[in-house]
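Appendix B, record 7
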Amino acid sequence: MKLKLEDSTLFTKSIELMSELVLEVRVKLSEFGLSVVAIDPGNISMVSLKIPKSAFKEFESGEEVLGINLEQFKKILRRCGKTSSLILEKKENNLEIKIEDKIKRTFNLNLIEVEREDKEFPEHLEFSSKVTINSPDLIDAIEDSLVVSDACSFIIEEKKFIIEAKETNSSKTEFSTDEVEIEAEDCRSRYSLEYLQKFTKAGKSFPKTILKFSEDHPLRIDFISEHLSLSFLLAPRVETED
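Structure tokens (predicted):
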């Protein structure tokens, strides 16, 4: 098995984000390319990373599963520079990681057994609302909500997308169709800001964020580039708002 990425920036960022949710993952290699699906220990969120074979400068692998400690992997990937190439090669029970630019560096990461049944990201879920928003605007709205609460509501109302947080104090951010793309029915659903803050960190690397949700329904967040897709699923908060 040997993989080579000429630009590892988005891959490195994606691994960093995943490491905030799960400690260990099963990395799958197939004819499609590379994929990871994982559920956080609280069973509140799910994450999916997909990189097609075409994104790699080299892709030499059959069906393969690699058990990886994300915390250790993340630390190595952080040594990549903006112009570094990344080469991953399995050697016995180790993953050899080469970072190449002006100089060549080699790390070895011990592969592990991840005792967890394989999960598929639920592509079949249907949503009544889809909002495409500039990532910096979403990040700001989430940060505003965190000032007053630990959860916020995503609301579609009168052709507007609203992010609202209410406890003793409140915050409210409204987006019209001038600022966001809305394909939606009126609905409302509430989500944990702790998780949303982690997910939306990806917005610093992806200019657009796609949100899909329905009334009291899980939220799907998609970040998509030419060569990589990173998706999150988040269970709703069902308690009654005051």
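Remarks on this record: The longest strand covers residues 45-52. The mean pLDDT is 95.
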